[in-house]
Amino acid sequence: MTSNFNKELDLALRTFIQEPDNFLDSLTLVNSLHSFTVLASDQPYAIALEGQKVTPVFTDKSDLETFRKQQASARQQNWVERPSLEVLEEVINYQLDGMVYNVKRSGDFGNTTVFKTSELVAFVTTYTNVINTLFDEDNQKAGLMERYYLVPVFIHPSGHDGFERTFPTMSQAEHQSYIPLFSNLASFAKWYSNPEFGIPFRKAQGAILTWKIDDVRFPQSGTEGTVGLALDPFDEEHQLLKWEALDN
Q1: pLDDT at residue 188 tops 90
Q2: What tens digit of pLDDT does each residue of 59-110 get?
Q3: Domain 7-129 fold
Q4: What one-character-per-residue DSSP string does 98-123 give?
Q5: H or E element, residue 114
Q6: Residue 200: cis peptide before it, omega within 30 degrees of 0
Q7: Which pTM was predicted?
Q8: 33 and 85 in contact (C-beta within 8 Å)?
């Protein structure tokens, strides 16, 4: 049987724990949860942790060995490779409070974290939808207007159950403002890590949505003062798409 246990998941988890609000790190973790297995009991198993019933899973073999030495009930379990999402389904079915990754009493806590069940479900669902939408084969082949892009946006509550949206912008030599959007992660990462654009956006707690161009254009709220869209602006083959050209 081929093993899907890989240190890449442990690395993705550590990176996420350091900066849980980082969109790219969250996306990488969810992709790793889909791709690689954890070490977990082959039967429903939970421990009490700070008043919660949680299922322990491990991305590091040495952490599991330490846990088995310290926890008598763990030595009675048969530990096997399982997908995290399979364990999560079990946690939901048994109405447990969550999952704990690499639980330990001392040592390196860089890969130790607790996910509440509802929070983990929402987290995985959100980023799985991004992955499926953006990297779907049909989306990769879609035309300019039919394709989904990564779009940075600020969402502001407004009135009763309403919201207003604004967009970060970029200006070129003529001081015309464009709204950036991205067709791929490599291009997006250049903007997201840029100290002039992405870092201030992250500090202001902006959101990243998967939208088509018309989702940005209509309604027109938030686009005032801009002349169009900058597609993959940090790439050599970037495109500046003016609103009037998109209307034709």
Answers
A1: yes
A2: 999 999 999 999 999 999 999 999 999 999 999 999 999 999 999 999 999 9
A3: Trna Endonuclease; Chain: A, domain 1 (3.40.1350)
A4: EEEES--SSS--TT-EEEEHHHHHHH
A5: strand 113-116
A6: no
A7: 0.93
A8: yes
